Amino acid sequence: TDLAHIRNFSIVAHIDHGKSTLADRLIHSTGTVTDREMKEQLLDSMDIERERGITIKAQTVRLEYKAKDGETYILNLIDTPGHVDFAYEVSRSMRAVEGSLLVVDASQGVEAQTLANVYQAIDADHEIVPVLNKIDLPAAEPDRVKEQIEDVIGIDAADAVMISAKTGVGIPDVLEAIVTRLPAPSGNRDAPLKAMLVDSWYDAYLGVVVLVRIKDGVLKKGDRIRMMANGTVHHVDRIGVFRPGMLTVDELGPGEIGFLTASIKQVRDTSVGDTITHEKKGCEAPLPGFKPSQPVVFCGLFPVDTAEFEDLRDAIEKLALNDASFSHEMETSAALGFGFRCGFLGLLHLEVIRDRLEREYDIDLITTAPSVIYQIHLTDGTTMEMHNPADMPEAVRVDHVEEPRIKATILVPDDYLGDVLKLCQDRRGIQLDLTYAGSRALVVYDLPLNEVVFDFYDRLKSVTKGYASFDYQITGYRTDNLVKMQILVNDEPVDALSTMVHRDRAETRGRVMCEKLKELIPQHMFKVPIQAAIGGRIIARETISALRKDVTAKCYGGDVSRKRKLLDKQKAGKKKMRQFGKVDIPQEAFISALKMD
Ligand code: GTP
Question: Which residues form the Tr-type G domain (predicted)?
């Protein structure tokens, strides 16, 4: 296909504003899928599950559209992950296309996630077509939302396309707008191959599937290609496009988007944003701006049952094969035994991995509180990167500590503004901006990531009854007065409960943690003191009084089966506990103790 007849685009939208519904409409109204075609186009053996697997991961699709000018165009839609954790992946997908549809729910208006993603599109020099969705809803206020798009984002919304992805109204206008308002890609067919690795995932039948955008040159089956980031060479055994099933093609030329397979074993061997070229006569310089995704949030994962350590190791290694942005190394904790210190792109990523370990691999886990990366500058002039507060060197060796900061963008209805400002202030935030868009405030704060990784988002949702939207990006490191706070249970430090805190807030935090732990740790036959300490100094203290009676005491002589039931319950409860010294600490204590509400 010649470049003038290609349009590449992505859809930018807040969750639930209708991105998937619109994509489905575009696929159906261009006749990309008829049942018969779908069958013909799928590779080799047909397998519903496999087809599902593909469509879940690759929402990339190639549409053929006959426009009003009588010409047929190839429209390539690339899906972008919606969540902040994957900001780098979003920015790479954006660089693979020339334009975006900005979908805004006409009954809701612009949200924080819309903003973050649309700025990425602007950074990637996209032409942006605003699309107002859900105009069928009685609550839709297209004029107000148009104004808001202009005020808040600063792009012209006069020609916004009005649609209902649900009823199909306006879909032909979207297709025409893609052709007439978005630019065609540029590229040189005769230049050496230069392709961007946009995404990759594991397919049980095909191995690793790599999504590519060709910038220059031509990619053919049988080519030997080189990944420029790590220099590895692969033999391309299949290339194709998504319609939306996989359809093999002979070649992919400039401006085109498609996939390749090359007997690559692990997703880890491919890096999003990398440049792919030919082994021989390759391009000289890679595409600019490549950086591997770096984990920013770390936590310990330990099996509840120590006997499950090897199972956990296997499961983590399997997951890591197909997720290059997830890191892990073995860790031992005096309190929790053997486990892993794992790194994630953000909290959602952490939750996804933890859930998969528990559900797919059936391992009960203790997750320690998430921590960020600290730069510890030592008095001897060296610097260490610290992922775990338990590794904090003694205070005398530490010159100063730097922590990561973020720029947080929050959109919130006026009524809740006060609560949001208070929350940000409580979390050591510095206000950068506060503007209004209709009846909603746009708040921008500089915040320590440390204060956000834990329960900030939950708190934000609860103080605004779910009406606030939130997004963030990491801006850099800054020095602050940070110290390690230890928790001692029954006079012994519990390493998994160590945290980094700001010195000015240490006492309050310490007091809250001791109170929480007092509630969470059950009574024992003896008194259990709980203390918070900085260095050797105790800053807060609570005591759990000793237990007087046996639970079964009240059943003396009575019903034996009832007594057995109670004992069984105790046993089941025990399993969820970690014995620490002589004290049993319930699993949830390792997380709940840190919540600050
Ligand atoms: P995620 O996949 O969660 O990111 O959401 P999304 O942005 O892809 O939104 P999706 O297409 O799943 O739509 C969200 C909800 O809005 C669904 O319940 C849709 O049925 C509904 N919806 C989408 N478009 C319209 C529309 O034009 N009108 C109405 N009334 N509802 C719509």
Answer: 4-186
